[in-house]
Amino acid sequence: MKKNRNYLFFITPAFILYTIFVALPIVIVMFLGFTDWSGMGEIHLVGIKNFVTIFTDKRFAPEFFNALKNNLKYLLCVWLIITPFQYLVAYLLFIKIPAHKYIKFMVFLPYVISTTIVSFFATLIFNPNIGFLNNFLGKIGMASGAWFGDPKWAFKLLILLILWQGSGSGIMIFYSNFMDISSDVMEASRIDGCTEWQRFLHILLPLSLPSCASNITMSTIWALAIFDMPFILGGINGGINGTLDFANLVFYRYTFGSGLNGKSDLGFGAAIVLIMFIVMMAVTLLQNKLLSKFEYDN
Amino acid sequence: MKRKLITMILTSALVLSLPIGGTVTLAAEDVSGTIVIWEHDYSFEDSLTELVAAFNEEYPDVSVEYEIKADGDYYSLLQTAIQSGSGPDLFWTNGTATTNMPDLVSNSACEDLTDKVDFSFISDSAMDLAKIDDGIYSVPWMTLDTRTVFYNKDMFEENGWTVPTTFDEFEKLLATIKEAGITPISLAHDSWSALFAFEPILAGYSPEYSAGLQDYTSKADGQEAREALQKMVDWAEAGYFGDNWTGVIDNQAQILAFTTGSTAMNIAGSWDAATISFNNPGLNYGAFAIPSEDGTTGLVGTAANGFSVNAASENMDAAIAFANFCASKEAQTIWVQSLGAVSGSEEIEASTDIAKEISESGSGTTYRSWQNVLSSYSSTGQASTVWDADFMKVFDGTLTVDEFMDEIAAEME
Fold first, then answer.
1. What is the CATH number of the domain that holds B249?
2. pTM of the model
3. Which residues of B fall within a CB distance of 8 Å from A237?
């Protein structure tokens, strides 16, 4: 009997495109990580020199690990602050607090503004010279601040800004999940005399765990790949005392900027990317293992 | 014998037809086609438009297109475009001041312009930006990119402050302005902005040291440089750059603080004059050089670099013709005057009052940039990188001045 291979017509175009634009670049980056290619001219293999530099160079290693530490700090904020905040707001919208429609609109609005524009707004507020905040504080007799130029404030303000700008999507995912829960179950719980707390604890929370998994996974990728906001708010060198330095900023500096030897170094940049790729894989695998407990069969 | 004679006559005729200096140029009517130019900043757009218009009067058959690539990653774009064979015919680089042009030259991406462009109008010091080994790879501009102290004339007059004539007077003026509740100097917390303040402070603090930078008899980490940097750190701690200046991370906010009258002075590049006038056309401001203790003044600065020719240009004749035009007195005058820049040539008069004031404030003395020494005399090639990465750490208290200067010394010849 002849096998039906029609499915090949469906998967082949996507397979070819995926191979060319995703798989192949990853393989090329892996290769470049072992070279000293500046982006022009001949490519020379240098073995594991780039990786040795990343871990042992007295200038680069502390910078890279400080940036990585900031990425992980941000990741912790995702788990402990941003996701719970998104969940709480989604729940308040779900139980229809007063003005919930207006709040829903206002919460989602910043999400459609690009991070570059949000960062520009932040500059207009927090910049000590041209910002609104210091002017306002001065007028009411309070002390002004350096804000993003103050190591005590810089990271906290960045998280606050991300919370304001980026939480809308997560809130909507949680909210949609709540709305997806059968009204029969909710109605039955009400008839059986459940309190609001009991309904939350025994019905909403367990049934919304899958959206928690999706939200946390997406936020984790975002946390490890953050670039634009700290770049605009703290500059290319990662803000004051490296408080706004993240792995992608380090990558940018050393690949396209002044870097190790004052010129572009795509080989070294590729090595940084490979290390970040491994870190991301490790964090995502670990996280998925934990989050798999959140999944359930309908 | 007859053939030999004819060959000699023809060769002599060819040699005699060359202009002095050996530059070979095609007649304007023989040059045609389209060339593309890349610039790196919008502030040069108007000047570029004027330049192209003047070039087209001479070369009407050449169509010149320009693109302003005002991104932080200009060099990456340029490198990628050249590598992929889609690079512009002419492009801006910072010449030998950074490693980008030498990098392009080592990859045979820049055309050697020796004997192809007439550089007779360009000064020797400006040509340093264009020369690598035995070749010439760009056409410098005769603008003097210097650093100056812009000051608010009205504010000075209202408060009875006068332009200082000694370094000590300058330091006392800072304290007086601070006591009056006004921020003395607008400065951004980034390495380049701080450098453009450090270099004129260093020139005022020790003119002898600054003069020695020209031939590197003054070392980059010399005692005077350490002391001048320490002075600047002390001024930062005294609030002379504003109480919250660490939060001002970009040059635009630095300029705005001055143009809106929040600060009395702004130590910055002379090229910022155009932005200051644009931001606040009504601002009555002037410029002075920080004086030394004996009252002498000088300007720290270099000429600016211009365009290089892509070695893979498909319209080499037109590209060379444009480069040759850029090197002419006519083009240099257009560039200097349309930018409102300080002139680096006695034959070109600055077009704005502020440019003339800056120029006069130096009393004819020009010092080499301290940062330029880092680029030119680093044994490891990394001194400039170390400076860029760590300069602000001195102001943040993460590094002491001596620790920073020791780092620099370790990278120098």
1. 3.40.190.10
2. 0.84
3. 190-191, 388-389, 392
